[in-house]
Write a structure and sequence with these properties.
single chain, mainly alpha, Tetracycline Repressor, domain 2, about 80% helix, about 0% strand
Amino acid sequence: MVKQRIIEEASKLFGRSGVKNITMDDLARHLGISKRTIYEKFKDKEALLIACIDSFHAESQEFSKKVFLEADNVAEAILAMLRKDAERASQRKFNMIDDIRKYYPQVFLKHLALFHKDKYNDFEQILKRGIKEGVFRENLNTEIIVYVFCRHADNAQNDDFLSKFSLSDVFENLGLTFLRGICTAKGLEIIDKYVD
């Protein structure tokens, strides 16, 4: 229980202030526990960061599975996922991923990059399912679409121009524009119903 609470609160603090700016002392103060208690659960800040990434990954996978089980079709599921991503992104500061890449390159390569790879693979399967359902166009090169969309989504969080808008608005506009571009008439009808 204590370990999970440390992970949850550390994730929030890292997201708000960046990984580099949060010390173990800051975290202990925030939690109202001793630093020793944290070190009993995690050998160092890097181990804690890895646990935060793993927890986020597991939560994302669980949310995706739930959404796809409950959604009537792929378009609805993707829109629900985009909204969840926008909600998460709005709670984080823009520089968290850059912090990890810059100050914890091994963590980025081994853990965050793996998370992104899984995200790409999952999204490609989603697109293929959407094509089978007649929601997305048959002539799509799913590999290209996944790469371009995920890169745009990642870059949107670190763009100076876009920083003046809420991440929720950025994700909503980016996601909707993207989806409309790959949808069939059937898919567009679903999106219009879901968005209104």
